[in-house]
Amino acid sequence: MSLSMKKLILVTDNQLVSYQNLKEVDYFTQIPLMAYLEGSFTFSEILDLLAFPLIYASAKSIFDFREIKNLFEKELPKNFALLVKRVGYANALELLLGSNEYRAEELCCLRLVNEIYTEETFQKQVERLSNLSLSAIELALDLTERMPHLANAQAEILERYVFALRFTHPDQKEGMQAFLEKRPPNFPNKLT
To answer: Edge-to-edge strand order for the sheet containing 62-64?
Structure first.
């Protein structure tokens, strides 16, 4: 695959969909969860992808931050705060001041990309996650996103609240019943 061609595999609310262009994605009707990227991506496309909590990329993917200077001459990009939230202030500053092209491995070190995968490995990861409760995955992602920004006491209170919330969820009841009956759980909302 040439770098000019993009491949996006997005896992949204109960769907696994391939795209060639981010403009095709409707973020209001599809809940973002995971993205797999192959090809070359511009800074504005990267900002759009930050809506996905988990981003995986092929080792050959290139992320072009050179257009940053042009973006800031207009106005602050809409998802810019997500970049700072995801990678931290120091790493965001390094990306902005560098204004370079980065390989996926470099962005994995900066925590913008979660992991380097092949498409087959990504498909296996999605298959493994499809056996889990979608609500539990979404809650776990939300929790890990909030925890680093809290003090220890606040984080413990949030963890207790999330545990209580999960314990009352129908997926928990189905998981416990499946365990007692020694069968695989049948969660109503799963990745497909």
So the answer is: 40-42, 62-64, 101-103
Residue at token pair 């797999």: 36
Q: Which residues of the chain have pLDDT under 70?
A: 1-5, 10, 12-32, 69-77, 131-138, 141, 144-149, 188-192
Q: How far apart are the first and last CA of the chain?
A: 26
Burial of 138 (0-12, 13-18, 19+ CB in 10 A): middle
Q: Is residue 187 a part of any domain in this protein?
A: no
List the structure tokens of 162.
């999330």
Flag whether 98 is in a domain: yes
* 158: exposed, middle or buried (Cβ count in 10 Å: 0-12, 13-18, 19+): middle
Residue 141, domain member (yes or no)? yes
pTM of the model: 0.67
